[in-house]
Amino acid sequence: MADKQDAPTAAVMVGPDGMVSGWSEGGRLLLGWTAEDTVGRPVTDLLVDPPPPRFPEGYGVGPDPTGFIPLRHRDGSTVDAVVTAHPLHGPDERVLGHVVTIQRWGRRPVIADRAFEQCPFALGVYDPELRFLWINASSGRVIAHSEEQVLGRKYREVLPETDRTLFPERDDKPYTDAVAQVARTGEPTRLITVFRPRGSDYANAWATSIWPVRDAEGRVRAIANWGFDMSAEYWARQRLLILNQASGGIGRTLDVIGTAQELATTPVPGFVDLVSVDLFDEVLRGEEPPSGFPFAPGETIRLTRAAQHSTKADAGQAPTATTAVTHAPGSVAARCMAAGRSTVELSAGPGQGGEWAFGPGLAADPAHWPPGNPVIDESIAEDGLTGRITVPLRARGALLGVVAFSRVDRPEAFTADDLILAEELTAKAAVAIDNARRYSRERTTALTLQRALLPQGLPVQEAVEVASRYLPGGHGTEVGGDWFDVIPLSGARVALVVGDVVGHGLHASASMGRLRTAVRTLADVDLPPDELLTHLDDLVLHLAGDLRSTGDFQPTGESGATCLYTVYDPVSRHLTLASAGHPLPLIISQDGTRTPVPVHPGPPLGIGGLPFEATELELPEGSLLALYTDGLVESRERDVDQRTAELQRALNHPATSLETLCDTVMDAMLPQRRTDDAALLLVRTHALHPHHVADWDVEPDTAQVPRARKLAVGQVDAWGLEEAAFVTELVVSELVTNAIRYGEPPIRLRLIRDTSLICEVSDASNTAPHLRRARAFDEGGRGLLLVAQLTQGWGTRHTTDGKTIWCAQTLPRAERH
């Protein structure tokens, strides 16, 4: 029978005159006509009147070579057919006729029906109202209904559960909404639907394509779909997404507690419902974790709950770092830490037939589980758990703690792939936690070294009032090399220094200490700022050469350092400064106006070959100087000029003291999450009263020495410092005599009453005196030795026009001005 066989195809030979010249057996099976009935008749006799608008070209019914044509069956019925005409050409390209093939429209071969019925994918057809028209066997198994049960019924009536979103947080679109959208718009769509079938404990993921089925006029007559179960692939992809999230979300901060909290929050709720992270106290303190097996058999393990996160709001609060937890001997956590292996606990055993009911995919096969897993433990159900994975937290061979991944509300049992995911998450977090622990230890060491190398207390002197602040970078950044110093100099002057070593960590702190020591040493020589920076630059170059390694590791020298060196003289109110790549100070007078600094910073230290420029300014009394490192003004949001203007506004803020102003400036300029350390040195300048300074010109004649002694003693008595008169007379006599004998005119004597009584003798010679040992019968050589013995300090400083020899006598506090 024709309807029981594969649908036939008719082949018809048509001459150039439109007459049928040949007829195949397929034509008889398809239309009922025999060759005797059709040969010699016009092919148009096969058409249903009126003829359609499309038919093979050459027969007066249209230009298209293929058309959808209703044909007359011999029994009088109409057969919808697809007709295709192929021209036959002769040697001279003349058309000799056509071969016309006719196939029934809407009919498939029987084997095609069997292919669709036996397809492993779920296939279905619905009308525009979403009523079932046809499903194959695979689709019937998926929805647990036969074709007879669903034909004519609406999809929502048969499967209402697919309208519920299994994962609301993912904004999944219900399947029926997608089908209705295709019926409404006529546009095909694809989606992945995740749902838990009725009566199942596992969520299935289906990849589905939905498209409209149109008639010859293009109208949507039905909606078709195909889908396949991709649960194993879907859940594997979800695991990869969680791992990818963990790669970017765990270890973002170099903080042990923060990293533990990142581990706890990453797999919730996509993987589990509750995560707890327990660490040894040594790890939290940045110390080395316990070596070897950290507890004796039978001993209770004491840890700290560093992080905990749950899908439940009341249990999702992160614990404090002081939440102590204990794990009893023989507990799962204790066994895992002792053995160094993970344990999977399930609250249910094998299903019917002895097969493990662990969900879809290869992970359901018990052969994929590592030895000893899973463990069936009904006791975890008492804690409201359906499953738990306990993983020891290990990094670089050291045990840091333990992590527990628990499922509470979901019925899916853990799979072997889930165990791999839990171990991967723990391994990533373990390295990050150990890095944070190591960083915390190094940062603490570097910060301790940094603070030890910075001034513990600024020296007492009368030239300036000072206040300072140093703040390291925020947690998660290494300690840098910012530093500052206040160095008393001869002549009641004071050196104000601030610098910055590029880089972070212990090396930066050590480099900072070397530079600060070098600056103090050079300051004792009383060099001008530009010469001091030149010597410091040479020193840095030598240090960099000494540190150069012959191996692969090249340590960073201090070549990335900057330094600002200033000297303030309270007698002249002059400020002399030079910069080696460091920001210039802000100088603000008492009326709030800014004093410009007409000097350009030189190159950073360690470049070599380039000169440093010094400049000298006369400051109004009571000027405010702000010396700072770039960490105070650098910002990603604003340029340096804008930040400098902000600093000036902050400095103009009224404050009761420099200490208060320091706090105000640091609060205004530094964000909470700063990435660099910052140092600030605020200085309020004072001027020494003219009555506390006395100076005289001395003629280059030894006969003038008694006059110089008399003038000095008279001034000391006028200041009420009679007890210092004897020593002053001796040192003035010695220094003036040396200047007359060995120096060059002009010669000048100056006395300064400050926290000490300072005596200075200047001349135009660059030759510096030095102590020497006098023999028993030598006539000279004892003068400077006498000066050194009678005073608390003496020295020489060179100037642009000669040198100055000075000595200082400490005054009782009551006699200081």
Could you characterize what this model shows?
- The chain is of the alpha+beta class and 817 residues long.
- Helices cover 28% and strands 28% of the residues.
- The chain is built from 19 helices and 32 strands.
- A 7-stranded mixed sheet has the order 13-12-11-17-16-14-15, sandwiched between helices. It has a 5-stranded antiparallel sheet with strand order 2-1-5-4-3. Strands 7-6-10-9-8 form a 5-stranded antiparallel sheet.
- Strand 23 (586-588) and strand 24 form a beta hairpin.
- Helix 13 (506-524) packs across helix 14 and helix 17 packs antiparallel against helix 18 (725-742).
- The radius of gyration is 48 Å and the shape is elongated.
- The termini are far apart.
- Mean pLDDT is 80; it is low at 1-5, 52-64, 165-172, 350-364, 549-558 and 772-781.
Percent of residues in helices: 25-40%
Q: Roughly how many Å is the radius of gyration?
A: 48 Å
Q: What structural class do you assign from the helix and strand content?
A: alpha+beta
- Distance between the terminal alpha carbons, to the nearest Å? 131 Å
Figure out the total of helices: 19
Q: What do the pLDDT scores average to?
A: 80
Coarse morphology: elongated
The largest pleated sheet is described as: 7 strands, mixed
Stretches where pLDDT is under 50 for at least 5 consecutive residues are: 1-5, 52-64, 165-172, 350-364, 549-558, 772-781
Strand order of the largest sheet: 13-12-11-17-16-14-15
How would you classify the quaternary structure?
Answer: single chain
